[in-house]
Design brief:
426 residues; Radical SAM protein; alpha/beta; ten-stranded mixed sheet
Length: 426
């Protein structure tokens, strides 16, 4: 079959000191409308640009790739039978599912705008999700984050639905991967059994050790939650579950973060360390914290701690080049209790939804309405050597087209790549 290139698309490449050659499709509709591609896709693109016809064998080997390029309106098939975009195409989809607004803690800085509402998860939510997932062409894996509020206070409301969804997806060849976002102050043997049976990845929020964590993460009676969380992490690990830890660096815990990181390294645990968005942290505070953290990580190499497999650094894409800091607007979204679809969970009820699960439009088409939220990168970001690592930071919190942590991110990226190189040399 012969293809033509969309005249509004061009192939670009950029040499990166860590990733090597980064190939991407640049769309003329907006300078930030960029799609990262691999070397094989770039090779096909160049061949078609030279007006060469693909052989039958090349079409067979690259059928998924070609279908994606056609669905993205990058390639136009010229010969019959024409490839028609009958369904949206994606191999993976990532969903934050809000299963409850209720929470058993009273953290005074919670960023979920709908917290403590009296709304319940709609009873047919998993049925609606399945109907959308089955209509996404080429879908292989659904990554579902169960979140809240505190999802474990509503365990009985979603447990059966998740199992039903997994069985239905499996029957049509789609894998369901589950992640729980939790404060881990509630844990029963039944929950542990569920996590083991369904390979649930457990992500726990911790602010620091002892009093640093308890400063904000309190029970409603005012008592701290740290000791309970640590005891429950121990229970999980003894059961064969290795939870990961989410650390958010803010202005009132930044001095305690290195101590927590050292604690986690000593226990060979996985963690993510991120900067608090929305003015709760200065660049100077974050830089001080990350200098200390990366110093600890550098030293941990001597003890065999695998930094590249254990640590995620904020929204930075340190393992693979990406045009955006997250997959929201591409193949990820946040879904609220009532089935409304948002670009991000930080916008629940406070922002405008992109669509709704019970509407006519397919979920992937709804998600891609949010793509332009990533647009608006500054000229500095466009020319920066870390354009495909930082991608301007979270688009909801940029200032003048770039992250307020821009200079710190550059320093952190350099430190992290140096650690990776040292790790490879071990």
């Amino acid at each position: 079959m012969k293809y033509a290139l969309n005249a509004l698309c061009r192939l670009e490449s950029r040499q990166h000191e860590h990733f090597g050659d980064v190939y991407f499709i640049q769309k003329a509709t907006h300078r930030d409308d960029v799609i990262i591609i691999d070397a094989q896709t770039a090779k096909i693109f160049k061949k078609i640009k030279s007006n060469e016809q693909l052989s039958i064998e090349e079409e067979r080997r690259n059928s998924e790739l070609l279908a994606r390029l056609v669905s993205e309106n990058i390639l136009v098939p010229l010969d019959a039978p024409r490839i028609k975009k009958t369904k949206p195409i994606a191999k993976n989809i990532n969903i934050w599912l809000q299963v409850t607004d209720s929470c058993n803690l009273a953290c005074d800085y919670c960023y979920i705008p709908s917290l403590y509402s009296d709304k319940n998860l709609r009873s047919d939510i998993f049925y609606l999700l399945f109907n959308h997932f089955k209509d996404i062409e080429g879908l292989e894996t659904v990554h579902l984050k169960l979140a809240g509020g505190e999802p474990l206070v509503a365990f009985s409301r979603w447990e059966q639905g998740v199992q039903w969804l997994r069985a239905q997806l499996k029957s049509i060849g789609i894998k369901l991967e589950l992640r729980l976002i939790t404060n881990l102050t509630r844990l029963t043997n039944e929950m542990i059994g569920f996590f083991l049976k369904h390979d649930v990845i457990v992500s726990v929020s911790i602010d620091g050790l002892g009093a640093t964590h308890d400063r904000h993460r309190k029970h409603k009676n005012g008592s701290g939650s740290f000791n309970t969380v640590i005891a429950n992490i121990k229970r999980l690990r003894e059961s064969g579950i290795s939870p990961s830890v989410m650390i958010t660096v803010a202005g009132d815990n930044y001095l305690g973060v290195p101590g927590l990181v050292e604690y986690l390294i000593e226990r060979d645990m996985t963690f993510r360390v991120s900067d608090a968005k929305g003015g709760y942290l200065t660049a100077e505070q974050f830089e001080q914290t990350m200098d200390a953290v990366n110093s600890l990580l550098g030293k941990s190499l001597e003890q065999g701690y695998p930094v590249s497999r254990r640590v995620i650094f904020s929204d930075l894409r340190t393992h693979e080049a990406a045009s955006t800091p997250c997959s929201m607007g591409s193949h990820a979204a946040a879904i609220y209790l009532d089935g409304s679809v948002y670009f991000c969970h930080t916008e629940f009820q406070a922002g405008e939804p992109l669509g709704h699960l019970n509407g006519e439009q397919n979920l992937l088409d709804i998600i891609r309405k949010g793509k332009n939220k990533h647009f608006g990168l500054s000229d500095d970001c466009q020319s920066c050597k870390y354009r495909f690592v930082c991608a301007g930071g979270c688009p909801l919190y940029r200032v003048d087209g770039k992250s307020p942590m821009c200079n710190v991110y550059k320093k952190v990226i350099s430190q992290v790549f140096d650690i990776y190189e040292r790790e490879k040399g071990k």
